[in-house]
Request: fold
Amino acid sequence: MTERCQGDTRPRTGPRARTAIVLAAAALLAATSAAFLPGTASAGTTLGASAAEKGRYFGTAVAASRLSDGNYTTILNREFNSVTPENEMKIDATEPQQGRFSYGAAEQIVNHARSRGMSVRGHTLAWHSQQPPWMESMSGSALRSAMLNHVTQVATHFRGQVVAWDVVNEAFEDGTSGARRNSNLQRTGNDWIEAAFRAARTADPGAKLCYNDYNTDNWTHAKTQAVYNMVRDFKSRGVPIDCVGFQSHFNNDSPYVSNYRTTLSSFAALGVDVQVTELDIQGAPAATYRSVVEDCLAVARCNGVTVWGIRDSDSWRASQTPLLFNSSGQKKAAYDAVLAALNNGTTPTDPPTTPPTTPPTTPPSGSCTATLQDSTRWGDRFNSQVTVSGATNWTVVVAVTPPQKVSNTWNGTPTWDSSGNVMTMRSNGSGNVFGFTTMANGTWTRPVVRSCTVS
Ligand code: XIL
Reply:
């Protein structure tokens, strides 16, 4: 590597019933209005929850060695719903000696993340850098076989646990050539990248397979165009590629540019998802962080943003103080900008922001109803939205079907039964619409509302 790189509902008649209907309708309108006002009742208070409301994730790189640091894990567990092992899934970590695989540190991160409902991005299966010595010294068909075996073994080991793999990392040259990087892997033949993607698809058919690179943010750069042409070619020939990762390490030499959104949307138009995979920005200017998040939210196939570390002191470029939290773990201005961008972002399914025409009235007490609606769906998970009418202090019980797991909630306080499949959600002052993300784990049954009671 170079330095650039989820009551009683019987009908009634008479005056009391009419009153109840009017009150219920008014309550529904009030709840609806509150939920649809941008940036108010539905605004999340953490990066992950806010991103989930917009159908995205917000992730961070995680180092296994830092999981014993309480300040670090407090922020990690509070703010993020996606995790990328910073070094622990790289080739030198997972296959230090040829044919001897070592997954301990990677599993530590995967278990930490998945037990808390965070998804995992796998990084990375084939790369010219951070190769173990045995691989660095290999070439030709032996290297090709070793590389494909590595892809197969690692992707198989983590099958079902990794939502997206950076199958190939940084395979293109910098500068104006638009050429492939001259690496030992490239010298095994130009088809090494597609061979790696095919091996990864066979090993874990459920994972999204990404090509990941840096300095591919500027739409006019030769390297960006070269990667674009490769992805277009892969799509036209049926090479199994699902996504493109943009590392987006921005600094004075490689700055954020306003055509970044064009880059993301142009790749997405090829029929792949796009992801911001390793974001850090020299000096962490709030406006630039905000732009990056707004650009992702503007592109329907931009799944999420991962920052490359939590606190500045965790960064591979610590001296650039490029992250969202300072070294003491306090939120920086860039954090507030990112959260605001996530909360202000719209989704294609957002309803119009019509102001209320009837003043809110007090809903009747004693009973409530909760209606569940499907919301955004992805390859591995889906969102549901529950609208409560008839009470402000409500308790709604929702059940998901195993092996589904709820990975994220917003606008309510959840508790769980011992199975983890039955969620009791209580109002927390955030309005009468709450939501949650369900990891499908292969089962797409709609969650069921079991009850609505007034607390
Ligand atoms: C970096 C890690 O953050 C460092 O800890 C390590 O020493 C070198 O690699 N592009 C990538 C990431 O794809 O894997 C790199 O991570 C940063 C650049």
Q: What stands out?
A: Residues 201 and 240 are 7 Å apart (CA to CA).
